[in-house]
Specification:
Blueprint (H helix, E strand, L loop, with lengths): L22 E5 L7 E7 L3 E2 L4 E2 L11 E2 L5 E2 L2 E7 L4 H7 L4 E7 L4 E13 L10 E7 L12 E3 L5
């Protein structure tokens, strides 16, 4: 195979998000749960660690190969909450669900997953009580069929 050659960067098509405000998490099982997002981190995509393919026949460079599978990484959000929803939170922990992240422009990422962790932050006088929720994508539906995220982009994005 030939040596790599440079590729010129082209101007991207589409529209970029211009402000981190606003993204919302929705649980299909409880779409109106009394949580108010303050800071949202959507799931990412991870291709996994590289496979080392170096052998005693390499002369100068360690070589690697990409993995075949990818996964969605955990997402998180910090929110204000109604203390009356604690029973809903407990019921939502480890419960398979379809979770949607909705962006300001109306684009959505829907995926199978569950609420893995609910961590109330320290309660302090003069500050609004908050909690951090950790969402774990499962990449499979309740029938154990492999499913990646469903992405719905708004026209022009």
């Amino acid at each position: 195979m030939a040596a790599p050659t440079a590729t010129a960067r082209l101007d991207p098509a589409g529209l970029r998000l211009l402000d981190g405000y606003r993204a919302l998490y929705t649980f299909a099982r409880r779409p109106a749960i009394a949580l108010w997002e303050i800071e949202v981190t959507p799931p990412g995509v991870d291709g996994g660690e590289a496979i080392d393919t170096t052998t005693m026949h390499n002369d100068l460079w360690r070589t690697k190969f990409h993995r075949s599978l990818q996964e969605l990484t955990d997402g998180k959000f910090t929110c204000a909450y109604d203390p009356a929803v604690l029973d809903n939170i407990v019921d939502q922990i480890n419960a398979p669900d379809v979770i949607t992240v909705t962006f300001r422009d109306g684009s959505t990422w829907a995926f199978h997953g569950y609420l893995r962790m609910w961590e109330p932050d320290a309660l302090k006088e003069g500050e609004m009580p908050t909690a951090t929720a950790t969402i774990t994508p499962t990449d499979e539906d309740t029938g154990h069929v492999e499913r990646g995220p469903a992405v719905s982009a708004v026209a022009g994005t």
